[in-house]
Amino acid sequence: MDVTDTIYDVLVVGGGINGVGIANDAAGRGLNVLLCEMNDLASATSSASSKLIHGGLRYLEYYEFGLVKKALAEREVLLKNAPHIISPLVFRLPHQPHLRPAWMIRAGLFLYDNLSKRITLPKSRSFKFDQQSPLKSDIKKGFEYADAWVDDSRLTVLNALSAKAHGATILTRTQLVAAETVDGIWHLSLLDKASGETLTVRSKSLVNAAGPWVENITGKVVKERTHGLRLVKGSHIVVPRIHDDEHAYILQNEDQRIVFVLPFEQDYSLVGTTDVDYQGDPQDVAIETAEIDYIISITNNYFKRQITRDSIVHTFSGIRPLLHDEAEDAKAVTRDYTIELVTEGHAPLVNIYGGKITTYRTLAEAAVDKLTQVFATMKPAWTKQAALPGGDFTDRETLMAQYAKDFAWLPAALTARYVRTYGTIAKQLLTGCETLADMGEDFGAGLYQRELDYLVANEWATTLNDVIWRRTKLGLLLDEQQKQRIHQYMSQIA
């Protein structure tokens, strides 16, 4: 289908989690949807989160009770709908009496347990650290509570796959460069960054889910008023595992911020995040020396196993696009979202401000609900009960056992990665293969030609980083020669 010959119901700008969530919701309600993303899916904020599905325990200190309640309810929905990429995670919070008194933490955890119904996760409890604890010996008491872990970039890709399955058109590396209304219809100029060609497409409505670039669209492309977005940078480091247990740790600091130490890709710890006001182009965001020192210092204050700059194997930074409020400190700015429908002076425009990955689905549902003023006959909301692609199974252990039976030749470690990355989609990679040799060239770290071909053909992967950092996390394991070979192969099949 030629996109220039179609009048779409909805054009979504932005291939982060909010954009693809909206595209998926709208397509499933029967609307004809086109999504454009100027880079890769999840190439900015949506691959640079702390990778948690959580209510946000610390938000209770800022009286964000509504946001926490909404997020806690969504935690259960997402655990059920994406069991391959989302899993329960128990957190341990070492108690430091001079930072927060025990009664305050107990009160916060009581609210956390009871603001929304818990189905799969245990309630919080007090906890005593023994000599086997990875924490320094003077830390004796703490608390435990449960949240969930998510592969954030895969959550984004899976929503795009679902949107496509419901009829949406997904165009990556395609940038909105101009927009105007003609006879009540948006006429939108899209630049194909690969070919340099500019296309003009038409749509009855426009959804601006451009994340850190949302004000660029409203101010420069649509020529609409702006709100003064506040950009807050969060940075993380990845180091070899700091501790040997499977728990996450939440560390308090003197400045009232917290740092997570999270199990990451079996052999690593993911440590962060920071909260720093950011000026400049979001595409240029990177961790700064002061942020590295900050994260290392807090971590070393707690753990027996010390880390240094030389320990760092990977870093990433992302920009949270937050609406200005009265908060002076970046850590206190609200993480809730705002959805704005504007119809005056042009065809319908929906602007998305703020949000967090945990509440992307409710944000998407609310955004599409706004369009009922435009499309009165569209179908009702549907995503709450719908498994994401690959998530149509009960639990990982059962699926692992099934794959071990059906594909006995597959190494156990590779089976485990396929289950937690693709779920039931992995059958597409494996069907027709009877030996490991049938998977084609081994590019290293368990990345075979069959998987790479699948990612290019089905998941919009066009560059090395699309594959090794966003579709997988194999960039942690591949050496430079292996990366070069993958790049070479992808150039051949492009």
TrEMBL record:
Domain FAD dependent oxidoreductase intervals: 9-328
Cofactor(s) needed by this chain: FAD
Transmembrane segments annotated in the record for this chain: none
GO biological process, one term: glycerol-3-phosphate catabolic process
InterPro entries attached to this UniProt entry: DAO_C, DAO_C_sf, FAD-dep_OxRdtase, FAD/NAD-bd_sf, G3P_DH_FAD-dep
Keyword Oxidoreductase carried by entry: yes
Keyword line: FAD, Flavoprotein, Oxidoreductase
Enzyme class, spelled out: oxidoreductase
Taxonomy, superkingdom: Bacteria
EC code: 1.1.5.3
Domain named Alpha-glycerophosphate oxidase C-terminal: residues: 383-482
MF-aspect GO terms: glycerol-3-phosphate dehydrogenase (quinone) activity
Pfam families: DAO, DAO_C
Catalytic activity: a quinone + sn-glycerol 3-phosphate = dihydroxyacetone phosphate + a quinol
CC annotations in GO: glycerol-3-phosphate dehydrogenase (FAD) complex
Keyword Nucleus appears in the UniProt entry: no
Family: Belongs to the FAD-dependent glycerol-3-phosphate dehydrogenase family.
NCBIfam families: PRK12266.1, PRK13369.1
The name this protein goes by in its record: Glycerol-3-phosphate dehydrogenase
Source organism per UniProt: Thalassotalea euphylliae
